[in-house]
Structure formats: structure tokens, C-alpha cells
Specification:
single chain, about 525 residues, alpha/beta, Rossmann fold, 60s Ribosomal Protein L30, Chain: A, 6-stranded mixed sheet, NAD binding
Length: about 525
Amino acid sequence: MTFNILISDPLSEDGIFPLRNAEGFNIVVDTSLTPEQLGEKIGGFDALLVRSQTQVTREIIEKGTNLKIIGRAGVGVDNIDLTAATERGIIVVNAPDGNTNSAAEHSIAMLMSLARNIPQAFHSLKNKKWDRKTFIGVEVKNKTLGVLGFGRIGQEVAFRAKGQRMNVIAYDPFLTAEKAEKLGVQFGTVEEVIKAADFITVHTPLLKETRHLINKEAFEKMKDGVQIINCARGGIIDEDALYDAIMSGKVAGAALDVFEEEPFVEHKLLTLPQVIATPHLGASTIEAQEIVAIDVSYDVVSFLQNGTVKNPVNLSSVPKDVLAKIEPFFNLAEQLGSFLSDLADGVPEEVNITYSGELANLDTRPLSRNAIKGLLKSKLGESVNDVNAKFLADRLGITVNELKTSKSKGFTSLITVEMKTATGTRKVAGTLLNGLGGRIVRVDDFIVDVVPSGYLLFIRHKDQPGAIGRVGTLLASEGINIAAMQVGRSEVGGDAIMMISIDKHVEESGVEQLKALEDIFDATPIDL
């Protein structure tokens, strides 16, 4: 059998070698197609490979009557209509690991350039000035590098920094002290990292929790003369706060490759001699561009020959009769995972997903992937999807077990997600109620009835008169309206919980005030 492959964006010959080398593959390279021409040709191809130039719209996908797989030679898939591809049962793959080495090398290059004032000295020399005194730098040996975000790139940066004989302290939501020790670095909280570091480099995704992670308050906690590197995502550092910190002398210098708004050419940061910057070059190497093409090419070959892929982006197709029964539970499964991610303390070590009642008789693997996606997404961001969630959990060392029981436990179908960490075990269960949608029906050992959406507040308290009133009064003082409340208790006067649906997020200061109330043990905001 011959597979027809269309490459519509420029890819190197070395990058598509796996396709050229595979038997039974007919490769057509045409990088000058208009959308109309692509629509006319796509029906004859089994696979489409693109970079960022080609827009793979719903119209193109619907005309790809033989299309089985779309490969994006890069990380992002903004130019591909994932929903349309999924509906048609077309798998989409990308290359999330291809730029790891290049991004790490660029981060180290920026760190060294920052430490030794290399760009500034070169610019001075170009202007015919021989000025050695102005550009005295610092050695990085025995200095402490703080790494915020210790995934693939963060670990590669740390490995290289240790080669420069730097000390490394790192934070990541999935990093434990034991893992850090095995990797040869010191483990710390965000605050411990920024207080200890002489140089700070960020390698987190841009999430609600990480936007402006490095802000005015963070700068105030840092050492005087700290130096900052950001080759990850624009927005992790508050650029205005960084400017003020440099002007005050708190920050000695900054090296930036990414920015909140790009192109970045007008910001006042660029007027400062202490700042060096590059135009988002972290992944811009010949090797990285070849590697992403190679990775995607191998996935295309593997899928068409064996039906397996390494880096899927969208949900693989399931039989229509099974999909019709489990699809209504997709959002619920993800919400349960997300709820547990906010509720539980510590790094997840084991996750048990139990299906009770009618769901126990179905293929629930897609639901488990959704639950894991919800669990990881708040920490890893949009890079987590239905298909790669299990793979990412495995890579993080999280054991995932899927369990089934025919016992209905009072519900037609029930999903229970349990997460174990070093600090304990937490669990949440949910179901669908006819005509009412998803419901959380149990948290740990307490029975509740809560809609899993919007802003929630989970409070553990002592079952005493006035506890609920004090919480309501404080929320009112913060301008937060209560939409609904559920309470549960183990026994009269014993441990109890409140599950409160509210109209907006509770800020950290409000959470601390809640925890300080009489008879309140703990308060956790949960955003779904």
C-alpha cells in the first residue's frame, strides 16, 4: 500500500528523512499552495505536514477525505483546527521536545552574556570606544542559580549551570526534595528560590498562576544585585516592575528573549544599559528546526504503518457507540481532576480513578485521560491534552490506576478520583444528574451536592455555632457574593466542611483571613 504525504511548508531534507526512508510513501513537497489550491489537492493525501505558514482550517480538513494524520513541525498548533480534525477522526501530532536543547543553550548564553556584559561591550567597541572599566563583569562559579520551572528545559539549564560550577536551587510544582536530590540540585519553594539566588531563570508555562510570578513583591524578596533571565514565556515577569527594580538598583541586569507583547521594540526596558534582549530566538537553531521535523516525520510513519504515535495533540477516535455514552462525562472527569489539583497539597505520587455503575462496562480510558488532564493542566498549562496527559503523568513519575466496580453506590454512574501525595490522600467523586448536568457528590468522606464550575471555596472547620456566619461576613466584607453553600459534618461538634459557590476568585489575602477565623482549620479556593 502506498501512502501519499503532502508537505506544504518548508522543511529540510534531513528533517523529512524518515519519510523518504520509509517504504510505500509517496512524498509531494509544494510550499507555494494558496488555501484554494490546498483545498483542491488535499483530498488525495493521507498525511499533511506543516509548520506555521499553512492554515489547516475546517474547510481544508473537510476536503481531506483521505486524511489520517496532520503533523506540525513545532510546538504550537494554533494554525490547525483541532476540533475539526478530532471530529473527523484525524490525529494531530507535534514536536514538543525538539527545541529543548536549543532553548537551554540560549538561556545559558544569555546568562553568560549578562554576567560579562558582552553585548554592551561589543556595542561600545563598534562605536570605536575602548572601555574596559565600564564592563567589568562577575564570575558565575559558586554563584547560585535559581530555576523556576524544572521541566525538560529547566533541567537542561541546571545541568549546564552545574558544569559552570554554579549551585542550583529549583522549584517546580511536580518536584520533590527527593527528586531534586537525585538530580543534584537543591529543592525550594518559589520564595526560597528567589531569596537564595544570584541569578534567576524562569522556565514555567504561562498560566493564570504564573503570570507576573516575578512581580514587585518578588523583587523585594531578592538579593540586591540579582540578575534575571527569561527565555520561557513573556508575561511571567512583570516588565514594568522589572524596570523599576533595575532603576532602584535591586536588579543588576536582565536578559530577555520573550515579552508580553511581541514584536517588543518600544518598551522602556530597552533603554536601559543593564538589559540585553533577543527577538524570541530560543528555538531558532538549524538543529532544532531539523529535530522537530524529524520527530513529526517519525510519528507520521509510525501512525500510518502501526497506528501508534509519540506526540499526539488531539483525542484519538473511539467507536461511535462508545463515544456517545462516555462523551457526556468528558467535562466532569476533567473538572474532578482540576478540583483535586487545587484541593490536595504536595506532589502527586499516585492517582486512582474508579468507575462505578454503568461506566464500569465501557471503555473509560478517554475519561481517565481527561481526569489526568484536569489534574495536570493547572500546573503545566495548555500543553496538556486528552491524549498526552497519561504520557506526561508517566514522565513525572505519577502512577495512574484505573479501577472498575459494578456497585453503583446509589448512582447510575459515578467517577471517583483519588490522589496520593507525601502529605496524605484526597478524593472527589462526581456524577451526571438527568437534566441537571455534572455534580460533585463527595469530597473525601463528606457527602455534598455541588456544581463543578466557576469559583468554589472549600473550607474545613469545627462544627460549632457561628462558624458559617463568620465566613459569610468575611466574604461580604471582601465584596464576594455567595451563590450556593453545602455543609457536611462527621458528627455533632466534630470535623465539618463547607463547599461554597462564589461569584469571583478569593485572593490570597482573603484566604489568610478566612484561615484566621475562629473554628476554621483551612480554606482552599478552587477555580473551575
